[in-house]
Write a structure and sequence with these properties.
alpha/beta, TIM Barrel, binds N-(iminomethyl)-L-glutamic acid, binds fe (iii) ion, Urease, subunit C, domain 1, 2 domains, globular, about 20% strand
Amino acid sequence: MLIHSASQLLTLAGGPQRGRALGTLGVIEKGAVLIRDEKIVQVGPTAELKASYPDEPSLDATGCVVMPGFVDPHTHLIWGGDRANEFEMKMAGARYLDILASGGGIISTVRATRTASIESLIAQTRPRLIRMFAHGTTTAEAKTGYGLQTATELRLLKALLALDDESPLDIAITFLGAHAIAPEFKDDPQGYTDLVCETMLPMLKEWWGTHAPKLTLPFVDVFCESQAFDLKQSRQILTKAGSLGFPLKIHADEFDNLGGASLAVELGAASADHLVKTSDADMAALGKSDTVAVALPCTPFGLAEKDYTPAHKLIEADAILALATDCNPGTSWNESMQFSIALACRYMGLTPAQAIAASTINSAHAIRRSDTIGSLEAGKQADLLILSVPDYRHLGYRYGTNLVKQVIKHGRVYSVDVGYYRSA
Ligand code: NIG
Ligand code: FE
């Protein structure tokens, strides 16, 4: 199939974009892309590709931007219930960490998740995935973490594997058994840390070998934060996970600076995420590493807080900056990377081009898939978007509606645009 005549085709070619290189879109005016067998064969000017492949079935993208599908590298996609009541409390002045300390927050979602069957968890998560896909996310990371006990964490993993199977969207799975201190261990955080290390992680390794033998091991993540896991406990968990061969991630500096970002660099983690209260030393460490700095602007927005990830300091430090939604029921119930881009432009000071690179090639690198997705280059997976806008700068500029017209995933075309008024 030849997708042709795009007003702008964004290739994002050349690999992850570090520091000031962020925002290199590789724009081809009147661009075209040839897709065969789920892969990209060639990218270039329409005139050239049409001449080389005159008989190819074609899809006309006149007036549209064609670009790689969004990669959302940080979501807590699977949970039971909702926390609309806490949103109301927060808007009336309650603080997120105080709600957590009083047994609400993550723990209230844990209660709703533990009592939900696998069928119910899948049914509650499926519409979120569909909304993500409709908004242009073609690959998403998804974390467990609302079980905090072995049986429920494994149920969440099983549900995520099933959702990955049924959905056109690809899911990169992360085990976040260390999302909060389990309620049973309220007064013994070290006891829960030891349980994660000595029981859950070894069991996960064995379980994965039987249930997903063809997939690489999932990421292991830790919420390194006051009221959750301190730096020593985070180190214990990630070191153990690393020794078992799991790739690593960390939640660092969302509310307090505990040194989690430097720990991520030291342990060779794929990414350090949130990074709102990150110190200059932590940023310097990120800049000298291959650990991607993942910013989640929907989270301070969702909590109505004023501090966002200091993107320009990270760029000056030469870090690889990425964006994600953090989709979760407590701080950011948002499935759209387009909205992350709009916020990143306004509150992190990114240009649309920088935010687009941070949501495609760099976010693919945050889940270690930048070799196969995140750009439009020969040999890569045919995951792309046709946007109903003539210029990429409409991303960021416009928000609150969906600019995606068609999603092409593994070379198959899915229509999103409603087109015109139609009644049954
Ligand atoms: O990334 N910080 C920890 N995890 C989520 C929030 C989860 C929740 O509140 O349910 C986050 O913001
Ligand atoms: Fe998170």
